[in-house]
Protein backbone atom coordinates (compact mmCIF):
# COMPACT_ATOMS: atom_id res chain seq x y z
CA UNK A 1 0.00 0.00 0.00
CA UNK A 2 2.86 2.38 0.79
CA UNK A 3 4.46 1.59 -2.60
CA UNK A 4 1.22 2.43 -4.43
CA UNK A 5 0.82 5.66 -2.47
CA UNK A 6 4.43 6.78 -2.95
CA UNK A 7 4.51 5.91 -6.65
CA UNK A 8 1.15 7.59 -7.25
CA UNK A 9 2.30 10.73 -5.47
CA UNK A 10 5.55 10.95 -7.41
CA UNK A 11 3.91 10.27 -10.77
CA UNK A 12 1.14 12.81 -10.15
CA UNK A 13 3.63 15.70 -10.13
CA UNK A 14 4.46 15.18 -13.79
CA UNK A 15 0.98 14.47 -15.16
CA UNK A 16 -1.00 17.63 -14.41
CA UNK A 17 -0.44 19.44 -17.70
CA UNK A 18 -0.29 16.49 -20.08
CA UNK A 19 -3.51 15.27 -21.77
CA UNK A 20 -4.11 11.57 -21.35
CA UNK A 21 -1.35 11.20 -18.78
CA UNK A 22 -3.71 9.56 -16.31
CA UNK A 23 -3.45 6.30 -18.23
CA UNK A 24 0.33 6.42 -18.22
CA UNK A 25 0.35 7.25 -14.52
CA UNK A 26 -2.00 4.38 -13.77
CA UNK A 27 0.17 1.98 -15.77
CA UNK A 28 3.24 3.12 -13.82
CA UNK A 29 1.55 2.73 -10.45
CA UNK A 30 0.06 -0.67 -11.28
CA UNK A 31 3.42 -1.88 -12.62
CA UNK A 32 5.25 -0.68 -9.50
CA UNK A 33 2.75 -2.45 -7.28
CA UNK A 34 3.00 -5.69 -9.25
CA UNK A 35 -0.69 -5.61 -10.16
CA UNK A 36 -2.08 -6.67 -13.55
CA UNK A 37 -2.23 -3.91 -16.15
CA UNK A 38 -5.72 -4.90 -17.32
CA UNK A 39 -7.09 -2.29 -14.91
CA UNK A 40 -5.99 0.39 -17.37
CA UNK A 41 -8.46 -0.92 -19.96
CA UNK A 42 -11.34 -0.34 -17.54
CA UNK A 43 -10.45 3.33 -17.14
CA UNK A 44 -9.44 3.98 -20.77
CA UNK A 45 -13.06 4.21 -21.92
CA UNK A 46 -13.94 7.13 -19.67
CA UNK A 47 -10.53 8.77 -19.37
CA UNK A 48 -11.12 11.14 -22.29
CA UNK A 49 -14.23 12.56 -20.60
CA UNK A 50 -12.69 12.92 -17.17
CA UNK A 51 -9.45 14.35 -18.57
CA UNK A 52 -11.19 17.64 -19.42
CA UNK A 53 -12.59 17.85 -15.90
CA UNK A 54 -9.17 17.27 -14.37
CA UNK A 55 -7.69 19.96 -16.61
CA UNK A 56 -10.42 22.45 -15.64
CA UNK A 57 -9.86 21.70 -11.96
CA UNK A 58 -6.10 22.16 -12.40
CA UNK A 59 -6.57 25.54 -14.10
CA UNK A 60 -8.98 26.75 -11.40
CA UNK A 61 -6.52 25.67 -8.71
CA UNK A 62 -3.66 27.49 -10.41
CA UNK A 63 -5.76 30.67 -10.75
CA UNK A 64 -6.83 30.52 -7.11
CA UNK A 65 -3.22 30.00 -6.03
CA UNK A 66 -2.05 32.98 -8.12
CA UNK A 67 -4.81 35.19 -6.69
CA UNK A 68 -3.95 34.13 -3.13
CA UNK A 69 -0.25 34.80 -3.62
CA UNK A 70 -0.99 38.19 -5.17
CA UNK A 71 -3.15 39.13 -2.19
CA UNK A 72 -0.61 37.91 0.35
CA UNK A 73 2.21 39.74 -1.43
CA UNK A 74 0.50 43.09 -0.90
CA UNK A 75 2.01 44.76 -3.95
CA UNK A 76 -0.20 45.98 -6.71
CA UNK A 77 0.72 45.61 -10.34
CA UNK A 78 0.93 48.61 -12.62
CA UNK A 79 -2.00 48.79 -14.99
CA UNK A 80 -1.36 50.39 -18.36
CA UNK A 81 -4.00 51.96 -20.52
CA UNK A 82 -4.28 50.82 -24.15
CA UNK A 83 -2.59 54.05 -25.25
CA UNK A 84 0.48 53.26 -23.18
CA UNK A 85 0.95 49.79 -24.64
CA UNK A 86 2.94 49.19 -27.79
CA UNK A 87 3.81 51.70 -30.48
CA UNK A 88 0.61 53.71 -30.59
CA UNK A 89 0.99 57.38 -31.55
CA UNK A 90 -0.08 58.41 -28.06
CA UNK A 91 2.58 56.23 -26.45
CA UNK A 92 5.24 57.60 -28.79
CA UNK A 93 4.20 61.18 -28.03
CA UNK A 94 4.59 60.55 -24.28
CA UNK A 95 8.17 59.31 -24.66
From TrEMBL:
Gene Ontology CC: one annotated term: membrane
Topology in the lipid bilayer: Multi-pass membrane protein
Source organism of this protein record: Marinobacterium aestuarii
UniProt entry keywords in alphabetical sequence: Membrane, Transmembrane, Transmembrane helix, Transport
InterPro entries from the UniProt entry: DAACS (IPR050746), Na-dicarboxylate_symporter (IPR001991), Na:dicarbo_symporter_sf (IPR036458)
Main localization category: membrane
Keyword Translocase: no
Signal peptide (residue range): none
GO MF terms, alphabetically ordered: symporter activity
Domain of life of the source: Bacteria
UniProt keyword Transmembrane, yes or no: yes
Protein name: Sodium:dicarboxylate symporter
Transmembrane segments: none
Subcellular location: Membrane
Amino acid sequence: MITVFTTGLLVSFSTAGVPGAGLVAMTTVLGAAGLPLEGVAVVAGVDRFTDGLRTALNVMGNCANAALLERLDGRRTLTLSPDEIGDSPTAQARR
